[in-house]
Amino acid sequence: MGAAPTDNAAAGMEPPISYASQYVSSIEVNSVPVPGTITIVLSMPILGADNQLQLVPSIVNEFMTWTCLPASTSGIDLAYVPSSCRG
């Protein structure tokens, strides 16, 4: 198995701000807390400055699994993380 990408280009994605929409400011692949992490910056006024959600990959029994978490910096309140994706 190869190494996880650490930025959008390595993941074959457009630059982070290319994904901007009414509710999303950017989507970025990075290496915090682990390589392959996807950070979604939301643009929803109710969230204020705490507007980041992360999808964090991990390998379990040779399968990749994902956990949704508030980002360690500027993370959204856990109440806004979908219950089906909380870690």
What this model shows, in words?
By secondary structure, the chain is mostly beta strands. The chain has one domain: 2-Layer Sandwich (Glycoprotein, Type 4 Pilin). 0% of the residues lie in helices and 34% in strands. The protein contains no helices and four strands. It has strands spanning 24-30, 37-42, 52-60, 63-70. The protein has a four-stranded antiparallel beta sheet with strand order 1-2-3-4, with no helix packed on it. The radius of gyration is 13 Å and the shape is globular. The mean pLDDT is 91.
Short description:
0% of the residues lie in helices and 34% in strands.
| The first-level CATH class name | Alpha Beta
Note the beta-strand portion: 25-35%
Count the strands?
Answer: 4
Number of helices: 0
| Radius of gyration over all CA atoms, rounded | 13 Å
Q: Write the CATH architecture name.
A: 2-Layer Sandwich
What's the structural domain tally? 1
Strand order of the largest sheet: 1-2-3-4
**Uncertain residue segments:** none
Terminal CA distance reads: 24 Å
Structural class: mainly beta
Percent of residues in helices: under 10%
Sheet with the most strands? 4 strands, antiparallel
CATH homologous superfamily annotation: Glycoprotein, Type 4 Pilin
In round numbers, the mean pLDDT is 91
Shape: globular
Q: H/E element string? A: EEEE
CATH topology: Glycoprotein, Type 4 Pilin
